Amino acid sequence: MSTIVSVNLAVPQPNPAKGVGVTGIDKRPVDHPVPVRAPGPKTTGLHSGLVGDQIFDIEHHGGDDQAVYAYAREDYDWWQARLGRPLANGLFGENLTTEGVDVNGAVIGERWHIGPRLVLQPTFGRIPCVTFGHRMGEPHWVRTFTRADRPGAYLRVLEPGEVRAGDPVTVADRPAHGVTIARAFRAYLTEPELLPELIGIDGLPDDLRETLAERLPRQR
């Protein structure tokens, strides 16, 4: 069965990775339903798609195409075996920790029906940053995370609703192009020869499509 095992909201903390400011990467499970809605364009708000979840680096995070971040419990377990330490839900900064959902194998543009009303749509994978690296405290974490090809998925909100731990997840309307979160992640970071197929698919964020189109001539 595919379910949400944890809904996680930010606990604001100082950001030692940058020396100044505050970060919302520290997300902790809550035991109540959380409303989810489209947050609006990036840089216009200090919240994600989950009510009560704060964002502080609005240049790089948030906005409608990164409204929700999901990570699979199965991938946490994979990391636990390699890092030799327990990893709690929310440690990677995800809003939704899933079980039984192939998050990295999700096709960009498919639909996730969660609980009675909420509908989300995968858009792209999570690009690791210096704040994430500092939080993990692992040598060369950004490189390690990139090479593992287990980025988790950002999602946009197609239909607002509520989410709570235990909600079922049903995947529907999977596009025929077949480009997954993991494949798009590789195209962006490690396999530029995949860029042409990525740029042409539906469901990709417009700003990302523009960035990739600018890079494409240099790959020919």
What do these coordinates show?
This protein is an alpha+beta fold and 220 residues long. Strand 8 and strand 9 form a beta hairpin. The longest helix is centred in the middle third of the chain and has 11 residues, at 73-83. The model has no long low-confidence stretch (mean pLDDT 93). It is built from 6 helices and 12 strands. It is globular, with a radius of gyration of 16 Å. 23% of the residues lie in helices and 25% in strands. Strands 4-1-7-6-10-9-8-12 form an 8-stranded mixed sheet. It has helices at residues 73-83, 130-136, 141-148, 181-189, 195-199, 206-215; strands spanning 3-10, 13-14, 22-23, 27-30, 34-36, 68-72, 96-99, 111-114, 118-125, 153-159, 161-163, 169-172.
Largest pleated sheet: 8 strands, mixed
What is the CA-CA span between the terminal residues?
44 Å
Uncertain parts: none
Rg calculated over all Cα atoms = 16 Å
The helix/strand class is: alpha+beta
Strand percent estimate: 15-25%
Helical run tally? 6
Q: Percent range for helical residues?
A: 10-25%
Strand order of the largest sheet: 4-1-7-6-10-9-8-12
Q: How would you describe the shape?
A: globular
Number of strands: 12
- Secondary-structure element pattern, one letter each: EEEEEEHEEEHHEEEHHH
